[in-house]
Design brief:
This protein is α+β, with helices and mostly antiparallel strands. The protein has five helices and eleven strands; from the N terminus they run H-H-H-E-H-E-E-E-E-E-E-E-E-E-E-H. Strands 2-5-6-11-10 form a five-stranded mixed beta barrel.
C-alpha cells in the first residue's frame, strides 16, 4: 500500500482540480490565455500520475516476478528447471577476461562487464547518460559448479547496483563488475550449461529486492512532486485570475 500512496494522493489532487476547473469553465472560455497557463502544469500532473502508477507498478512487477521464480545459490536451482525457465542465481564471477575500452584506459580497473556513462548538464538537465555497454560471456561460480552467462549485445543485459567510478576529471564514469564480485543474475535457462542473463545485480537476492523496493518508492515520490508542483501552479493561476476584475462591458448604443 505504501508504494501506491503517492498515486492515491495525486488522484485526489486530480479530482479536486477537475472539480475546480469545471466550476470555473465559463471564465476559462472567456480567457483563452488562461487555458495555456493551466495546460502546461497539467502536463506535470499527468506525468506525476504516470510515474506514481505505471512506473511504480512495473518496478513492483519485477519484485513479484522474483518472488515467484526459482532462486538460490546452488547449481540445482539452474540444473533442475527446464530450458526457458526464468530464474535468479547468486554466485561469484570467476576466471573472466578483463575488458578494455577503445577510448579510455580502463584495463587496470579489472572490469569483466561494464557500462560507460557521460555527465550531461545541457538543456538544464543533470543526468548521467549511457554511452555504451561492453558485454561478454561470463563464468559464474555457484555452490556445486559453474554456469556460463550469456550477456546481450549492445547492453541488453541490465546492470544494477554496479559501483560507478569517475574517470579522472572527465565527464565520464564507468561501472560494472569484476572477477570475485558476488552477483545475482536473473535470466532464462537456454541450455544445460548456459543462462541468458537479462539482469546482473551486485549483491544477493535480499539486496536486489531492497534495491527494487527503494526504486519503486523513489519513483512514487518523484511522481508526487511532479503532480504537486503542477497542481499548485494551477491553483495559483486560478487564484490570480479570480482576483482580476473582468473588463467593463461596453455601453450599449442608445
Amino acid at each position: 500500500m505504501l508504494y501506491y500512496l503517492p498515486a492515491l494522493i495525486l488522484v485526489v489532487i486530480a479530482v479536486v482540480l477537475t472539480i475546480i476547473l469545471w466550476t470555473r469553465r465559463p471564465a476559462l472560455t472567456r480567457q483563452p490565455l488562461l487555458i495555456v497557463f493551466i495546460g502546461i502544469p497539467a502536463i506535470f500532473v499527468v506525468l506525476g500520475l504516470v510515474m506514481s502508477t505505471v512506473f511504480v507498478y512495473l518496478q513492483r512487477a519485477q519484485t513479484i516476478e522474483l518472488a515467484l521464480m526459482p532462486t538460490g545459490t546452488d547449481l540445482s536451482v539452474f540444473s533442475q528447471p527446464e530450458n526457458g525457465t526464468r530464474l535468479a542465481l547468486t554466485g561469484t564471477l570467476v576466471d573472466n577476461p578483463v575488458l578494455t575500452d577503445e577510448e579510455f584506459d580502463i584495463a587496470d580497473m579489472g572490469f569483466v562487464i561494464f557500462l560507460l556513462e557521460q555527465f550531461n548538464d545541457e538543456d538544464e538537465t543533470i543526468v548521467w547518460m549511457l554511452i555504451r555497454q561492453q558485454n561478454q560471456p561470463l563464468t559464474l561460480m555457484v555452490d556445486g559448479g559453474e554456469v556460463e552467462l550469456l550477456t546481450g549485445e549492445g547492453g541488453n543485459t541490465r546492470l544494477s547496483n554496479a559501483g560507478r567510478e569517475r574517470l579522472g576529471d572527465s565527464n565520464f564514469r564507468v561501472g560494472g563488475f569484476r572477477n570475485g564480485d558476488s552477483v545475482t543474475v536473473i535470466g532464462s535457462k537456454s541450455s544445460d550449461s548456459q543462462l541468458t542473463a537479462s539482469r546482473i545485480h551486485g549483491g544477493d537476492i535480499a539486496s536486489m529486492i531492497e534495491n527494487d523496493a527503494g526504486n519503486a518508492i523513489a519513483l512514487g515520490i518523484i511522481g508526487l512532486c511532479f503532480g504537486m508542483f503542477g497542481g499548485g501552479f494551477i491553483l495559483v493561476v486560478l487564484l490570480i485570475a479570480g482576483r482580476r476584475k473582468p473588463p467593463p462591458e461596453a455601453p450599449s448604443p442608445a
